[in-house]
Amino acid sequence: MFCGAPSRRTSFGAPSKRTSFGARMARFPVKCVAAMAQFEPVAYVRSDRTKMSEGHWADAESRIEFDPLYARGLAGPGGFSHVIVVFHLDQIPAFDPEKQLAPNPRGMENLAPVGVFAQRTK
Question: Taking the CA atoms of the chain, what radius of gyration do you get in angstroms?
Fold first, then answer.
């Protein structure tokens, strides 16, 4: 869902008064549009690891292999200290709300279920 945020300017172009975000939202109607994102990969991450359960990921070495079509886009990053990698996990099973929205922490049946956004979970 994409929702356009209200502008910090009034409809006449003058800066708006400092108000809370909620107050600004009330004054300016927001249009929300449901959208599906489609991804076209430009590269793939490769590793010798084949299973998530192997653990010790801090020690794992991986490489990013770019499609030759995008090779020119790699010109110049050697002078920078960081690279931002946006990724999509394409091999995880489909989401199952019954099992995944409020699981028992660490799969331990003796612990009460906790919402997925309130715990670190796989």
Answer: 22
